[in-house]
């Protein structure tokens, strides 16, 4: 069995199947990923702002695979041959050079699961790819943080403002805006200069409100919280183009910014279009049956953000990805051994949580009722957001090592600065 993608769904599935069948030798499991480590994607905005140190939150694929009964193969898929049941991994080249480090390789499979996640969707908007920063993976988050730290230090030295514009009023864009403000708040404790430089953040949302997947009450309270932090929130602001200075809006106005972040929309990685004729949705997601098998090949499954259940579409969230991985981990062994059909996946919606740094947070249950954001300034919701990450750690590590990971992270935050400015 081959699992492509080591995100939330892919690593959870590899870990569970490795523990149940890989260790005993009943199943040969290979995880393929174009990176060497896993991070929890809902924390990327913290890594970008420097308010969390991802070296403490990474799970190295090689060591994790060795301890959980599966193998790790480094590489990026470039082609799928369904008739031969073979994946082709692209050659790895030295960055900015033509020297080949790893030649093209092939990986054969009997069962294949795609869990390659998603990316922000530029919707073909001119200039986005050339002039915007994306935060779809830890490499992009780290690159943003590197540039952000240098810009903050320059702003301290020159006494000039720092302009940041973020497109997308979903959870990623909203949380990033608050986290960047938090980073500057903490950075002011370093006392570089008597006064903290001004950071002007603008959040652009094409729709009528931010956090559209939450109740309207949460959207309005979140907007008020951001504006209290002097973050400009502009709804109904559709971007028609981007240049080296900023965003051009549909009404002809401009929003100029030194940092231009694109966090709008969701689409599958472009490689899904090259998967030997497998059916794809408009967003490039692999179309699957209710049991997560692709519509044109029963040996291939897709889970998480890269899959699309045509009969009952689900939101591209970590909660959905995790539950789909658990579903396959439960039923794939019998499908492999006895060809027992995999039953349809049933999503158990437990609600959603959004946390705005240390400032506020909200949670929405599946019935639309909310918690947090009250007298405790959203403490319950912010703790709930942290608890989801700890749950993820315990699931992958187990209780003993998960406890150690939590304690290590807590001690690190206690003894070291909470924002990365070095």
TrEMBL record:
Q: Keyword Oxidoreductase: yes or no?
A: yes
Please state every residue range assigned to the domain named FAD/NAD(P)-binding: 2-325
Q: Give the protein's recorded name.
A: NADH dehydrogenase
Q: Which cofactor does it need?
A: FAD
Family the entry assigns: Belongs to the NADH dehydrogenase family.
Highest taxon of the source? Bacteria
One Pfam family cited in the UniProt record for this chain: Pyr_redox_2
Query: What keywords would UniProt list here?
Result: FAD, Flavoprotein, Oxidoreductase
Organism, scientific name: Acetobacter malorum DSM 14337
List all membrane-crossing ranges: none
InterPro entries registered for this protein in UniProt: FAD/NAD-bd_sf (IPR036188), FAD/NAD-binding_dom (IPR023753), NADH-Q_oxidoreductase (IPR051169)
> Which Gene3D superfamilies has this protein been placed in?
3.50.50.100
